[in-house]
Amino acid sequence: MKKILTIAACLAFGSGYVMAQETFPRNGVYDERAGLVALTNATIHTDYKTTINNATLLIRNGKVEAVGTSVKVPAGAVTIDAKGKHIYPGLVDMFSTYGLPEVKSERGGWGSPPQMESKKQGAYSWNQAIRPETNAVELFKVDKKQAEEMRKLGFGSVLAVHRDGIARGTATLVTLADNKRENEVVVLDKAAAALSFDKGSSTQDYPNSLMGSMALLRQTYLDAQWNAQNPAREQNISLTAFTAANKYPQIFEVNGKLDVLRADKVGDEFGKQYIIKGGGDEYQMIKEIKSTNAPIILSLNFPDAYNLEDPFDARRVPLESMKHWEMAPANAAMLNKAGVTIAFTAADLKDKKDFLPNLRKAIQYGLSEEEALKALTATPAKLLNADSKVGSLNKGMLANFIITSDNLFAVDNIILENWVQGSQYKISEMPSDYRGVYTLKMAQQPDRKLMISGTAEKPELKVIAQDTVTGKITFSGNLVTLAFAKDKKNKESIRLSGWVQEKNLQGEGQLPDATSVKWTATFSEAMSQKAKSDSTKVAKTPQLGNMIYPFRAYGQTELPKQEVVLIKNATVWTNEKEGKLENTDVLLKNGKIAKVGKNLSENGAKVVDGTGKHVTPGIIDEHSHIALNGVNEGTQSVTAEVRMADVVNSDDINIYRQLAGGVTTSQLLHGSANPIGGQSAIIKLRWGKSPDELMVENADGYIKFALGENVKQSNRNNANIRFPQSRMGVEQVFVDAFQRAKEYEQSWKSYNSLSKREKAKTPAPRRDLELDALVEILNEKRFITCHSYVQSEINMLMKVADEMGFKINTFTHILEGYKVADKMKDRGIGGSTFADWWAYKMEVKDAIPQNAGIMNQLGVVTAINSDDAEMARRLNQEAAKSVKYTGMSEEDALKMVTLNPAKLLHLDDRMGSIKTGKDADVVLWNDNPLSIYAKPLKTFVDGIAYYDVERDEQMRVELEKERMRLVQAMLNAKTGGARTQAPVTRRASVVHCEDVAHSEEESYFAH
Fold it and tell me: pLDDT (tens digit, 9 = 90+) per residue, 428-478?
């Protein structure tokens, strides 16, 4: 076999015909041999589901000529006997950076001035992160080192993706032949278009948030459509290229499961079905991932176990990280079982050598071998529209294949050769198999038995005399070394070195007392087939822990279900004209408050004893920043195009914590980094549901405005140049924005008033997402919540609103609201404030704790908000402060965190009071809800008890048991030789109004 393969190694002929250099002149004579090779007697896997035994593979000019059991080998063909070997199609990696330049970012530090405009010269996009004009094929260079590394894993072709920017241009499908020029290895010059939410090497400020990236991508789609319809209006190479790239498969790289859903949402808006390069945690949201219909490209980059020998270190590792370590290898199997199309990539692996072991691990965790092979051959080929060229061994396809010693997925399998475009690349030699039983003789020592087991590639040694000891044995070609202890009591090693003589071993060595000896090991019997199988058999599928929703501490194996609940004999704070009712019952049914009264009954209802307890509407936080992956797109003065709904993080533990504080609804606001910020999201705290399922159905749209120090960036570095830099500049931002919005609206009205014939010859206005949102404000379809402190600025914005014809819904913070409450009331503007925060920066120096009470007394709809994840857990206590400071009634105080914020959010017809027909968002308290001793016992959202104090206590016990189980599993993994990583402290990130990035450090003073 070796002899024949060596001959074949000389066949570097003819295969260049596949993608030939016919236009290239040659310095010398032309040598055009046919490249005709027949590999016979092999087990050939022509595709992931078809295997032909004792078959022949005939290749000519780098392509498959024929395959089967009755193939006639033509005269002149080089014949290679592949008896006992397996042949598979070359693997296809559809997400690689092979042959492409490294992407480097040169962004400035904190003290650098912002870069508002693109530095890229030419008629390109206004934003450096939009680079669809990039064609990977133009950057591609054959890289011998990278090609060899990938061929060793079994790959014959890869999709080269330039991982730079949001719109990344086109990717190219190339083979891993390294004995050819670039134009010979390109299979498809433009095989796919690549996208992401990562701005890559762009040094431009915008976007600096995930929601900004999503908005920029949306606007790019719209601009490309407009540009295609109106090519004379603007010469833009980027937009033209973006439109052209839309005809290719669209590959979207994301960082995790929530980003899969986000990318799919953008794709749905523009009629694009993305292929998603995932982050490895998709199994945590199987139902939602499946609903996207997106094929998922999976990396096999599994996390290492944590080194948790120190019990204090173990406390630093969150439950979700522990469970992800255990469950990540099952990701592929779980997705495949759910019917999700998967493909594999070697991308993201720190060490590419982990690819095949991790692939076998994925199979061990439940993925079938057939599906694994499909994910590496047929699926990527089909997704790239290249299934007529790669992915199987049918006639006319590229002669990309691997020769293996055994089943590709067997533990002891060896990839012997990788043929690419008909060129042979030797990977490994078939190791000699010395496994068996030997009789060892050493000078005057008693005879011993050597048992060599394990695999041929990695043999294992046991030495049997009076004791059985485990030793080490290593073969290197014809040489062998052994080391083992004399017996179990004596740990000093006997060390032997020698060579193989036919089936026997012999040589010289040294005993523990330094005596030199000669030795022989005479072969007596081969290892039994059963012993060989036992030494190489695949480990059993491990027993995994339960899936929990959400995938973190306090997640549950099953989400609580809606029930019919009857709360009996409680004190009910109705927030209606009936006021506070003693010894009253509340019936929750079908997600609604069905009845309120005395002596109620209902068949099948779960009865909750409310004696001595209090029932209130769920608390509504009008100003929150929980459950968000980022809070500010602070790079421009107007970012009305960004949407908080895009970046809702349904896994945020603050959802659960705030349920424990009686909160049922929150408005998630953009921060206060710019005068006109992003569009709000209003959510219900449905712990364990997806981001879309958190959203309050059919809620009005809101948007965040801001005034004061934050928007003029008083506390930023001196290098800042973003307009505005003064309070008077802030006014001009508003005036300019709404003037542009009016002109924009008028342009669309004029266009839409045209007849069909006139429209056909009139260019449509350019759609602008930023101005769309402002037009919605002008038409009272979107409502303003404005961050505010200083009286003069509040007066300014009311004046601008009067002049420009828009309304302000709510001033939030509004710590000088007591100075302007009369003007607010006249305009129907509400106030959402802090109870008693003051003196945390200069512009709040005039804040007083009577503010909320004064606004309320003057008829302003007044709410108390948190703007803080911690304070939101105690909003009932914040409301109670107005009783102390202003003598407000308890019922009015409670309304400031229930009914009044519902009014400000235009949801008071659904929530905010205990009234028949309203949503069953209800809290059962152990005491007067305004007492510092009050604690929620149950918090219902839509009639579902998402928080229950008794269940919480039980979960705490179960959580500790689960942590201990996982700690022990990691300790066992380390003992078994698994790699480990050190625990790293990760502080929870709590975001606030002026936070520009999603920080890993908590700061409670960033308001």
Answer: 988 888 999 999 999 888 999 999 998 888 899 999 988 899 999 999 888
Report CA dihedral (184, 185, 190, 191) to the nearest 10 degrees. Answer: 140
Asked whether the whole model's pTM tops 0.90, one would answer yes
Q: How far is CA 865 from the centre of its chain?
A: 31
- Helix ranges, 544-647 (H): none
| Mean pLDDT in residue range 544-564 | 97
* DSSP letter for each residue of 95-150: EE-TTSPPP------TTSPP--S----SS--SSTTB-TT-BHHHH----HHHHHHH
Least confident span in 474-488, 616-630, 675-689? 474-488
Both tokens of 754, joined, read: 């045209």
CB distance 624 to 954 below 8 Å = no
What's the mean pLDDT when you consider all of the chain? 93
3-class SS shares of the chain: helix, strand, coil, % to 5: 30, 25, 45
Q: What are phi and psi of 260, to 5 degrees?
A: -60, -45
| Residue 964 CB partners (closer than 8 Å, separation 6+) | none
- Paired strand residues for 45: 51
At residue 1003, the pLDDT reads: 28
Residues 619-647 pLDDT 10s: 999 999 999 999 999 999 999 999 999 99
Task: Look at the chain and count its residues.
Answer: 1007
pLDDT (tens digit, 9 = 90+) per residue, 496-546? 999 999 889 999 999 998 899 999 999 999 876 555 555 455 567 789 999
CA distances from 929 to 78, 195, 881 (A): 88, 50, 12
Alpha helix locations (H) across 142-270? 144-151, 182-185, 210-229, 237-245, 257-269
CA–chain centroid gap for 241, Å, is 28
Per the CB < 8 A criterion, the answer to whether 637 and 676 are in contact is yes
The residues, ordered by sequence, that sit 6+ positions from 43 with a Cβ below 8 Å of its Cβ are: 51, 52, 53, 54, 55, 85, 86, 87
Give CA–CA dist 548/119, Å, rounded: 47
CA distance 406 to 429: 13
Q: How far apart are CA 47 and CA 902, in angstroms?
A: 61
Closest CA to 936 of 868, 686, 928: 928
Take residue 433 and report the two structure tokens written for it.
């198999």
Return the SS3 of 6. helix
